[in-house]
Structure formats: structure tokens, C-alpha cells
Amino acid sequence: MTRRILRIATAALLIGTLAGCGMSLNQGPGAAGGQFGGLPTAGGQGSQAGFQNWVQSFRPRALAAGISAATFDSAMAGAHYQPGIVALDRKQSEFTKPIWDYLDGAIGPRGATGRAKAGQHAATLSSIEARYGVPREIVVAVWGMESNFGAGRGNTQIVPALATLAYDGRRGEFFAAELVAALRIIQSGDVDSAHMVGSWAGAMGHTQFMPSSFLSHAVDFNGDGRRDIWSDDPTDALASTASYLRQNGWRPGQSWGTEVILPPGFDFNQAGKSVQHSGSQWAAMGVRRAGGGPVPSGSILAPAGARGPAFLITENFRAILKYNASDSYALAVAYLAEAIAGRPGIQGDWPRGDRTLSNSEKAEIQRLLMARGFDTGGVDGKLGSRSAEAIRAFQRSRGVTPDGYADTRLLAMLRS
Ligand SMILES: [Ca+2]
């Protein structure tokens, strides 16, 4: 949940891997903007002695950023290097789940739990809706996705974890900035360092805020004088989530979007987040709302290409993407919310028979596209929006449906 997550050139399905290893997707690389870029990192060769040296070299920079010596020294006292966290940060999975498996796992029984939680916290959620204009089912769905409604908030000490990742992670600058943000939170008195716990990569509390997001968006909604996203009471965390979404473009009274039925022969050049039309324009193109009713304005999302379901996404879907820049994640929030509200799930069929491409096959697709002059923005095995655009351009050049979807057929076409 950083406000900078759009910088992640993440594959839509990367979340499937990360969710499986307890890491929220809300960590973007390079977000520190170079402020702490002068510090050497250990590059995976860290040691306790190297860590302590790093802490001492980092101290003047933290103090220059407004952290008091007392706050720094007390929060860092006893902090030690944690090679296990570095190992988690470097873990790469060769396969990611297909979106249908990811959605099945993400939504599943959480719909019923979410309904119960929405009932249990009905009064709080009504106040949050009134204040921020974000529907309760969306707020509860984010809660369910991020910590399984508070059950999985994480108990890793955040300061030593962030210091370890700043010293020896793949994205040292990003974590150095988050470490300063964490120290700023401690200095503000919202929490002390012993109680600042969360997931190993720095996401904290019921809705897994990174420290920088906490500073920008957390609110003291229950009025006890502290912004507390860590305790059993989720009130502040839920309100902070609504605050985050509202500040990132949530429009009260609008939906996230809807599933749509595309007409036969639909022009897939019109699909993708870069193309937006009004509801009446979509209707004129033959796009219908699944289940009937007016089509909203927005963009068409077809995560599994022409053979899978399609969605019309609005500005509010984009606000969820600011929470986590994965289409799969945002669809999971949307449909968990639908389940919590008692509305139908996805009606179209996914191409469940498709074999999952490995990350090296995805990298090969990117390499072959680049070799043919279609710019994927790099070769990292993660098919994000840039790669999807390159795939569309390649498909157009071959006269096949330009749905931007990578499957074994696309790979075969590129290899030939
Ligand atoms: Ca509070």
C-alpha cells in the first residue's frame, strides 16, 4: 500500500507468488528517490558487523531527515541483521498462479467471513462510509485480502526488518526511506518500536500499510489520540484504508466497475487501461453489462484475453490499484466485496485448461518481442502493462486478435 506502487513494473499475476510468501505487493522499487542512495548495500553478502557499520553510517542521514538521536538510538538498540529476511526478499518463484486460481484462493471462504465481519463492525463501517464515501464491502474486502481480517497482521519487528532490507535487500533505497518513515512514526508517539510489528517486508497492521503510507494516510478514527493500526481493534486501520482510497481517487457513489459481455468480433484494440470511453460509447460498440443494466464509463479489462471474462473498470478500480498495482489483486478486492455484499461473482468462464507459462517462458516472450522491435520495457519474466501493449502490437502485426494475452500459442507464434 505505498502511494508509489504504480512504479512497480509488476506482472498482473505476481501477486499470486507474493501472497504465498506473506509479502504484500505494496513495495515499489526506487521509491526513495535517491535520498539515501549514497549508502553501500551488502548485495546479499551481509554480516552482523557489516550491519552495525551500516546502522552507524545511516544514523546521520536519519538525523538529517528529522529523527532525533534519542529516537534513533533507542529504536536501533538491539537491532540485528536478519539473514532470513534477506533470503525471503531474494526468493524467486518460477511459476505464478493463473489469475483464476489466484481469485479462487483469494475470495473463497472469505466472502462469508467478510459478511460476518461487516456485521460485527457495522456501526464503525457506517461512520467510515459517511466520512470517506468508500462502501463498507470494499473496506472489508481490503481487510480480508491484506490480513485475513486481522488474523495475519504479522509479528515481525519492523525496524530491524527494514534496517536489514535497507542494508542488504535488493531495493536498499526504498527500504531506507521506509525505515526513516518508521522511525518518524515511533517519534510521533503512535506506537513504540517494540509494538511496531508486521510482515517481514514492512507492511503493518490490519490493512498492511507501509510506514510511508501510514504517514500519508493513517487516521485516528476512534479519537483516542493515537493512529493505531496494530491493535485488535481494527477501527483506525479500516478508516485509514478508506482514507487512502479516497485520497487516491475513489469517487463516492460509483462502483468499481462491472463484468461485461463483449460482442462477437469485438475490437480488442479498444481493450486495456489506456483506452477509456463513456458508457454510451461502449454500449454503441455492443458492450453489454453482465446481468443487465447500464454500462459505466471506463476501460475494458480482459485479464485472460479474448477467451476469458471481461470487465469494465472505473476510476474506483484504479483507486484500488493505487493500493496494490496488480490487476489480479484489484479484481480480488472487487469480487470479495461483491461476495460480502451478497452480489453475484464472475459469470464468464476462464480458460482454465491453459497451461501456466513459467517465468522463463515469459522472459522468452519478452526477449522475442524485443528482438522483433516490440518494446516490453525490459526482460524480467513479469508481464506487466508494457509487455501487454507489446503483445498487442505483435498480434496486430500478425492479424490475430490483439488481446495482449500471453499463452503457449503466443509463445509458439513468436518462436516460429
Ligand atoms: Ca486511535
TrEMBL record:
<dbReference type="InterPro" id="IPR023346">
    <property type="entry name" value="Lysozyme-like_dom_sf"/>
</dbReference>
<dbReference type="Pfam" id="PF13406">
    <property type="entry name" value="SLT_2"/>
</dbReference>
<feature type="signal peptide">
    <location>
        <begin position="1"/>
        <end position="24"/>
    </location>
</feature>
<dbReference type="InterPro" id="IPR043426">
    <property type="entry name" value="MltB-like"/>
</dbReference>
<feature type="domain" description="Peptidoglycan binding-like">
    <location>
        <begin position="363"/>
        <end position="414"/>
    </location>
</feature>
<dbReference type="InterPro" id="IPR011970">
    <property type="entry name" value="MltB_2"/>
</dbReference>
<dbReference type="GO" id="GO:0008933">
    <property type="term" value="F:peptidoglycan lytic transglycosylase activity"/>
</dbReference>
<keyword id="KW-0732">Signal</keyword>
<dbReference type="InterPro" id="IPR031304">
    <property type="entry name" value="SLT_2"/>
</dbReference>
<dbReference type="Pfam" id="PF01471">
    <property type="entry name" value="PG_binding_1"/>
</dbReference>
<dbReference type="GO" id="GO:0009253">
    <property type="term" value="P:peptidoglycan catabolic process"/>
</dbReference>
<dbReference type="InterPro" id="IPR002477">
    <property type="entry name" value="Peptidoglycan-bd-like"/>
</dbReference>
<dbReference type="InterPro" id="IPR036365">
    <property type="entry name" value="PGBD-like_sf"/>
</dbReference>
<protein>
    <submittedName>
        <fullName>Membrane-bound lytic murein transglycosylase B</fullName>
    </submittedName>
</protein>
<dbReference type="InterPro" id="IPR036366">
    <property type="entry name" value="PGBDSf"/>
</dbReference>
<feature type="domain" description="Transglycosylase SLT">
    <location>
        <begin position="51"/>
        <end position="338"/>
    </location>
</feature>
